[in-house]
Design a protein that fits this description.
The complex is a heterodimer of chains A (about 375) and B (about 600). With about 375 residues, chain A is mostly beta strands. Chain A is built from five helices and 29 strands. Chain B contains 17 helices and 24 strands. With about 600 residues, chain B is of the alpha/beta class. In chain B, helix 2 packs across helix 6. The chains are: A mainly beta (about 375), B alpha/beta (about 600).
């Protein structure tokens, strides 16, 4: 293949951040371009139509569908209450009338003389989308939402569960190699906890119970994730889990120290308000979980997003598969010809000098570039 | 037109666009080269032809010929630039996504599902009266999925009308929008009871574009999928393709209509089954999905196991098979926790490759389970018609479980074709052969092959124009023969002789529980004489002698005496020893025969 992309997650102290905030349907935008917004502020609102319920009216009244219209006591557009009489047959000499009562409260939307059904719509409910990050409204999306621009720290994780949350960062362990235990939790209501190489299953549960809104950690064991979510996650599309606290992994599964740069950035931001999102999608249109901490001021001196990087001699890398999974190093050679590896496959490799001094031959597909 | 001498064909996949060159040399069509480039149907390109030009450009470099002129693939060939034919298939942008509806889940809805799958679609949901959901849930679902088109079925001729009207009302309430193109109406193919058509038309009004075709299940015991499949294909070209970025341009370049990739593969599998005169099973195992195509007794079927794959969906294989389901195929000790973490790490970094022998064996273990589960899915759907005979009223029909025997017969199966990286690019071909045997458990005599570079899509679309040329290239360049599996079936105690064999002068005995390999190089065929013991069947009936030619391949002839269904030893040490023995027997151990 002519072009190869080397994956890498973004860890930036001072990035320009744009967040698109969209309603799931058309509605009203509540902000104007140029206006400052706070993270909790609503930027758009919509009335979500209620569920449509079908009432098999003709069948229940034991009439033909075309007779339905003459039996209706309510017309399309009328409000109805649960239990209210909505249709009645004429009966025989005014007796033996069949009655139909509305099973729900709502609005009679339509009836059909073809099928003999009535459809009643439940009351609508209001849906709001919040800014999620503090910043400025860059532009609005007509009837749908807005794009918020801010600058600040942006850290992408590798996998997460739970949707958007906001809370103050609190570092819960001593270092990036430390594992989170239940006794490390303490007072954390409304906080986003930061841990190191792992988190015990009991510690995850304790943090959620203590009211933490998020936990950012290098890795967890798959078993701990399963216990927390309550089931096996089959396909890597997450964000909708019914969990109290969002969980974001920065490195992967097992026990893996948080990358030093990520750790140092997160600890430097302790006490600040973080906007986090565990939603992950690992397919076309990749979505990675993220932690955002915005700061005041314009975007002039912010780092721009780096163009897709290319692996080259001197690149700082991390190995992302066995046998050196998690090891850091530097590329010292990039042989052009495919090389046979232990599996007997011929693949394009890189020679990497690992931080422990060893030299390793690693398939290029198993390397991740690290920003320095 | 004179016989084309130069054919360029592309397959626009969801991540990669692959171009191949087929040329006529010495009165035969042969593959001359292959190029590839990333697919460009999404931002920032939003134009599928950019990827086509890049892939064809790479093909130019590799074959030292020119096909491109004025920013397109030139046809016809002029001044040695261009090609006589340019053809393409596509599954880019998510392929063809369909919603199907029917009345009874296991009857009309299942027939509709077969029609859509056979036409190359991804079926995103099946709505049926007995699907266990409330109307509002169905409406919410229809609204959220944004299909490319809907296939509506239900009711035999003279049967139910009311259920079709109910479904039409659901569609009106949901007001589904097409995935691509905001300004056109969603096409709905109506293939249900013709007596309900006018009522359905009235209910649907101008909410959708209604296209009636013949009832796909006119009687309970008859299925007519052809008209629905043709309509799906026509709409795929007219609506879906025409709306996808760059396809309007691509459609003016090609010498024949663009085909959806799975449909093209299906065409090729059917052609191969006719040509070889045998039942065929083809599988394509990818990162996200596993497709199975089969022809049994002349009947074609396709299934897509949307969440069985080896990278994005690897943890769904884990969820379905369970840790022990996967671990039972791994020939070394590995803790459940370690295995689960490894598979999760593969899921989140799907482009990584195994570097160690142990890691390769783990991936091949997952592949066995993904293939096995996909076959179970296929066996269930590739069936005769369910609900035949007993049906009297709809109430009866809902409770029916009888009928619908599967068409899949592993004993009559003559050829298995594997494709997808784990099979086509296995470091040793013997590994691919053993994965197919372990997962599919073929019975009797079955040839095994892999599609070397997954060119069945391009050959399938070529078959619509030049079937003989497609078959020539299929035989000579597409299929890499792995060899032949010989698996006797019947009860025998471990270690008992179940078969005496003679192949091209070599002879021997096969014991129950044993796996044995006889080397026979690719391209060579030898006469085989197989005498099973009493009660054992190798294809000619219990205890009956089988004589005939067997084909060679990279893995030669593999005798599988392990029995059907294949049961692994329960005690861990015994199981590990057996796995190592089997893998070594067929020379499939990575890193040599350690």
């Amino acid at each position: 293949m002519a072009v190869a992309y080397t994956p890498g997650l973004r860890v930036s102290e001072n990035a320009v951040i744009r967040k698109q905030r969209r309603l799931p349907m058309k509605g009203e935008v509540l902000v104007q371009p140029g206006r400052s917004v706070q993270a909790e502020e609503a930027v758009a609102r919509a009335e979500m139509p209620g569920h449509l319920q079908t009432v098999r009216a003709a069948q229940m009244l034991q009439i033909e569908p075309q007779e339905l219209q003459s039996c209706l006591l309510k017309r399309p557009g009328d409000e109805v209450e649960a239990g209210e009489l909505i249709a009645q047959t004429k009966g025989l000499w005014g007796l033996f009338k069949s009655e139909l009562r509305s099973p729900i409260s709502g609005r009679l939307e339509e009836f059909s003389a073809t099928s003999g059904h009535i459809r009643i719509r439940e009351p609508s409910r209001s849906v709001e989308v919040r800014a999620h990050i503090a910043g400025e409204v860059e532009h609005i999306i007509e009837e749908e939402g807005a794009v918020i621009r801010a600058r600040g720290a942006l850290i992408q994780g590798i996998f997460g569960v739970g949707g958007e949350r906001r809370g103050h960062l609190r570092v819960a362990v001593d270092g990036p190699e430390a594992v989170l235990h239940s006794e490390d939790i303490g007072e954390c209501e409304g906080c986003v906890l930061v841990a190191g190489a792992g988190a015990e299953s009991a510690a995850i549960a304790a943090a959620a119970e203590a009211g933490a809104v998020g936990l950012v950690v290098g890795a967890v064991r798959d078993e701990a994730l399963r216990e927390y979510v309550g089931h096996d996650i089959g396909v890597a599309i997450t964000g909708q889990e019914d969990v109290l606290m969002a969980l974001i992994l920065t490195e992967g599964f097992g026990e893996l120290p948080m990358a030093r740069r990520t750790w140092e950035l997160l600890t430097s931001l302790e006490g600040r308000l973080a906007s986090i999102d565990g939603a992950t999608q690992i397919r076309a249109g990749v979505i990675r979980p993220e932690i955002i901490v915005t700061r005041e001021g314009g975007a002039e001196d912010a780092e721009q997003e780096l163009p897709a990087q290319v692996l080259s001699v001197g690149s700082r890398v991390r190995v992302i598969r066995e046998p050196h999974f998690g090891a850091l190093g530097r590329v010292i050679e990039l042989p052009a010809e495919p090389t046979e590896i232990e599996t007997e496959s011929k693949v394009r490799i890189a020679m990497v000098e690992l931080d422990n001094g060893d030299e390793a031959r690693v398939p290029r597909a198993n390397l991740e570039l690290i920003q320095e | 037109m004179a016989e084309p001498s130069r054919i360029v064909a592309t397959d626009c996949g969801s991540t990669t666009t692959k171009a191949i060159l087929i040329e006529r040399r010495d009165n035969a069509y042969r593959l001359s080269g292959r190029g590839e480039a990333p697919t460009t149907v999404e931002a920032p390109f939003d134009d599928v032809t950019v990827g086509v030009l890049n892939a064809t450009g790479e093909l130019e470099e590799l074959t030292d010929r020119r096909f491109l002129a004025e920013e397109r693939v030139r046809t016809p060939l002029a001044s040695d630039v261009g090609a006589d034919l340019y053809l393409s298939t596509s599954s880019a942008g998510g392929g063809l996504q369909m919603l199907v509806t029917g009345v009874v889940k296991t009857m009309t809805a299942e027939s509709a599902q077969r029609a859509a799958l056979g036409a190359g679609a991804i079926v995103i949901d099946v709505i049926a009266v007995d699907d266990g959901r409330a109307d509002h849930q169905r409406i919410a679902r229809i609204r959220s999925i944004r299909p490319d088109m809907i296939l509506m079925s239900g009711g035999t001729e003279g049967g139910t009308v009311q259920h079709l009207l109910d479904t039409a009302e659901l569609l009106v309430a949901a007001d589904p929008r097409p995935r691509l193109g905001r300004d056109f109406q969603l096409p709905v193919i109506y293939a249900g009871n013709s007596e309900a058509l006018e009522g359905v038309r009235e209910v649907l009004g101008d909410h959708v574009e209604l296209l009636p075709v013949d009832n796909l299940r006119p009687q309970l015991d008859r299925e007519e999928l052809g008209p629905s499949r043709e309509a799906i294909h026509r709409l795929f070209l007219e609506h879906v393709m025409a709306q996808a970025p760059g396809y309007d341009k691509l459609l003016t370049w090609t010498s024949a209509p663009v085909m959806s990739t799975p449909r093209a593969v299906g065409e090729m599998v059917q052609l191969a089954a006719r040509d070889e005169g045998t039942d065929v099973l083809a599988v394509d195992i990818g990162g996200a999905t596993t497709d199975i195509f089969s022809v049994f007794g002349g009947q074609f079927n396709r299934t897509v196991s949307a969440n069985l794959g080896l990278s994005y969906s690897v943890c769904n294989v884990l969820a379905e098979a369970g840790t022990d389901g996967i671990r039972r195929w791994i020939p070394m000790k590995i803790e459940a926790d370690e295995l689960r973490n490894r598979l999760r790490n593969k899921m989140i970094r799907p482009t990584t490759v195994p570097q160690t022998a142990e890691d390769l064996l783990v991936e091949q273990a997952v592949a066995r389970e993904a293939l096995r589960l996909a076959l179970i899915h296929h066996v269930a759907l590739a069936s005769g018609l369910k609900g035949v005979q007993q049906a009297r009223t709809m109430a009866d029909v809902f409770t029916q479980t009888g009928g619908g025997e599967t068409l899949v017969d592993m004993m009559s199966l003559g050829l298995i074709i594997g494709s997808g990286g784990i099979l086509s690019h296995a470091p040793r071909r013997e590994q691919a052969a053993l994965m197919l045997i372990d997962a599919f458990e073929p019975q009797g005599i079955t040839r095994l092959a892999v599609d070397s570079i997954f060119m069945m899509p391009q050959l399938g679309v070529l078959a619509s124009v030049l079937p003989d040329a497609a078959m020539e290239v299929f035989r000579r360049d597409c299929l890499v023969p792995l060899g032949t599996a010989i698996a006797p079936v019947g009860r025998a105690r471990e270690g008992a002789v179940i078969l005496e064999w003679e192949i091209g002068g070599q002879q021997g005995e096969l014991q129950a529980g044993e796996l044995r390999q006889v080397r026979l190089p690719p391209g060579e065929t030898r006469q085989a004489e197989l005498q099973p013991r009493r009660g054992i069947d190798v294809g000619a009936g219990r205890g009956r002698r089988w004589s005939g030619p067997v084909a060679g391949g990279a893995a030669g002839v593999i005798f599988d005496g392990r029995g059907r269904p294949l049961a692994l030893p329960e005690a861990e040490d015994d199981r590990l020893a057996a796995l190592v023995r089997w893998i070594r027997t067929v020379q499939a151990m990575p890193g040599g025969q350690r």
